[in-house]
Design goal:
The complex is a heterodimer of chains A (218) and B (251). Chain A is an all-alpha fold. Chain A has one domain: MetI-like fold. Helices cover 82% and strands 0% of the residues of chain A. Chain A is flat, with a radius of gyration of 21 Å. By secondary structure, chain B is of the alpha/beta class. Chain B contains 9 helices and 10 strands. In chain B, the strands form 2 sheets. Chain B has a 6-stranded mixed β-sheet with strand order 6-7-8-3-9-10, sandwiched between helices. A 4-stranded antiparallel β-sheet of chain B has the order 2-1-4-5, covered by helices on one side. In chain B, a hairpin with a 2-residue loop joins strand 4 and strand 5. In chain B, helix 3 packs across helix 4 and helix 3 packs parallel to helix 5. Classes of the chains: A mainly alpha (218), B alpha/beta (251). Chains A and B meet through helix 5 and helix 6 of A and helix 2, strand 6 and helix 3 of B.
Amino acid sequence: MFTNVTLSLLEGFLGTLKLFSLTLLFSLPLGLVISFGSMSKNRIIKFPIRFIIWVIRGTPLMLQLLIMFYGPGIFLGINLWGSGDKGRFTAALVAFVINYACYFSEIFRGGIQSIPRGQYEAAAVLGLNKRQTFFKIVLLQVIKKIVPPISNEVITLVKDTSLARVIAFYEIIWEGERFIKSAGIIWPLFYTGVFYLIFSGLLTLLFGYIEKKLDYFR
Amino acid sequence: MKILEIHNIKKKFDDVEILKGISFSMEKGQTLSILGSSGSGKTTLLRCLNFLEIPDEGTITVNGDVLFFANTVDLRDENVRKNRRHFGMVFQQFNLFPQYTALENVVLAPKLEAKSKGEIVEIEEKGRELLRKMGLEDRMNNYPHQLSGGQQQRVAIARALALQPDILCFDEPTSALDPELTGEVLKVIKELANQHTTMIIVTHEIGFAKEVSDEIIFMDGGVIAEQGTPEQVIDNPSNERTKQFLANYLK
């Protein structure tokens, strides 16, 4: 029984992992783009982007998932996401990517703006252009500064994936709950916690390693 | 020919006029020190030369080429980057790049322009040579946070020299150092003066300025109040403000 449950939950956890990894893959670069937008000197770019960040950070992710999934059908009368599990997954992924990109963008913005002006000036008097200044001087200093807050968000994301359950996206909680109906047992649902714990433990180790790697400068 | 000619440089920040028309010139191999109280505009003047600020009016001429003619430059312009290369800059706060070793800091900019492997080897050899001259032989592979303030500033001087600027500028190079470390930086600058490096030094170290300079400018309220040899300006000042300033210092 225990082996069966574990195998089933592992299958559910694959859904969790898929949502987790694809969200990261898309939201990190999108977050960087959004952060540049929110720091833009052009008001036509800056204000709409800051408005979107405000809305996304100011409303629950669960609500965003519901609106993302049902919204197009209800308000526009179109079947944007397609049918079945694939549609649910796409809608969930888009909602997660937008949500996390906004959080990441604020972390990036904080990191970029915390680099002292002297670094830019030193680069300028040495004749570096904007591109060289960003990639050779600023980027690594920013990465060092944002690793701890990013690791926080990433670990939150592991657990947030369970919210996709609200639009019936198949993941580990769903799988655990299934045993209540099919076998009348609740412990598999509780057991899912172990999977989350092990995975976030691994991530903690990974980020600890990265932080240590960047420890050689201050 | 004059290596540097500044004519009528003016600069305002939010309607406050910081530089009210500065003109001076200097010869190759000279050391010029700029003295003056805080807010007199001396740092702003230095920043204008390095195109960290854009003057509102005036001209900057290096070796007979007009580099800056008011309001004709765009800071993003490729030309500005080229023009900056006439000047080296040593900052009060050093501004070393923390993720690079002392040597990497020195060779970073020249290496970006290197075209061949051989050239890179040459640049690194020259970088080591510069750091040796700064007395940092055994510190080349240390990161900035592992160095004392005085050592960091000497790396910053080597970094500026690596690009072989026509004129090396110092913005209060010892103001962020405790007195014990000031000496080692001043010694290096003095060495450079002996080798006839063309330098402009903004400083509060009056004794040092007197010792090292060929010419001294005293700035007050955005204008040059007095200019001359160290003997003229420091020992026999004629301007009231200069006298006052020096008297306060000697107290």
